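lol ok so funny story. i was supposed to be doing the assay writeup but got distracted and ended up predicting the structure for this chain instead. priorities right. anyway since i did it might as well share w the group, maybe its usefull for someone
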Amino acid sequence: MTSPRITPLPIDEWDDETRAALGGRSINIFGTLAHHPKLLKRWLVFGNHVLAKSTLSGRDRELLILRTGWNARSPYEWGQHVVIGRAEGITDAEITRIADGPDATGWPANEALLLRAADELHADQCIGDATYAGLVEHYDTQQLIDIVFAVGQYMLVSMALNSLGVERDDGATGVPIPER
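and the output, tada:
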């Protein structure tokens, strides 16, 4: 896509509830979803859990999100989370390896399992028995649930971003960019 299918609303056109929920955070996904304030408000609660209140470490969460953004071929999601992933200690070399997937050399067992879980959820909408058995060795029950919901949340978001043509925000660049 060369332009957004839905142009983000500028902050001065947001309703009071949206302005209160987001404050001054005006990234393109928020401006786009500001066209649907009720959905935005409810989605923010769930998204906030996955991004900020999950039982997973920030690094584990970002590995899942980046692999999901890659699998969904979502340039916006990939770019935003390259920035966040770097802040969580994921190196540029690891970011490049995320694109290569769980079988790339150098992943510790638990991280390869996370990437594999993201792949299996993307392909089959279910984590396979062998991958799940491996995850159980590293993660507790709440973390196992958060793994599934992190991938599901970011697949949903990637579908919306790709379908609505949400453009990347300034500064949200990464290596490499997943192409459609």
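Residues 11-51 form one domain. The chain has two domains: 11-51, 56-164.
back to the writeup now i swear
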